[in-house]
Amino acid sequence: MALRRIRRNASRILVISLATCGLAAAGTAAASAADEPTREQLLADCESGEGKCTFNDPQIGEPYLGNFQQVSDTLYNCSTSDSTKKLSWTQKVGSTDSVGVSITVGGKIMDIVDLSVTASYGHTWTRESTESDEQNVTAKPGEVAWISRAQLMRDVSGTWQTHYDSPKWDHYFWFVPDTISSPAENGTGGKNSAVVVRSRPMTEAEKASCEAGGKAVFAK
Description:
By secondary structure, the chain is of the alpha+beta class. It has helices at residues 39-48, 108-121, 204-213, and strands at residues 4-7, 15-18, 52-60, 64-65, 69-70, 75-77, 83-93, 95-96, 102-103, 129-139, 143-150, 152-168, 171-183, 194-201, 217-219.
């Protein structure tokens, strides 16, 4: 019976290891933190190919809106009447893991996730999204305005299994749970990304720049 060991570290995600031999054991000895790899070390081995990795039992969550981000220049209205200007916007959103680290789109990690999702659900996993457009933006006198966008996102949760040809950290297998957050296409789950125009009153410094610049309306 394979020995299974579980250890929890406050500064790291739960890591589970399978023993290197098939001998039965009455119990497990608690290893020090130095005996166990960090989550980053395991995923680095997956990326480099030193570890033979799979992303097991993928579970896809419901789509949701990510955080709003400013995606355009800012329109400054130093005049005494409303001002409308067409602003272009662009937003590029990639994938991140459970600790917010960006995942390289063309790397092995995303290839493994894509393969796992495709095998389980019959469709590929969106890795990144770049959207661009233009829109009229109106700023009231003494205000600044801009375009913000929230990308539709979706998470897939699973467990990384790392297999080594020779024991590493005294084991052939290591497991670490993870959640990958990636952009989703509009219409997924009946939801769409959101684009809004936002504004606020100018700061005193911005008002001073209006006077110094001599322009009634400008975008930057």
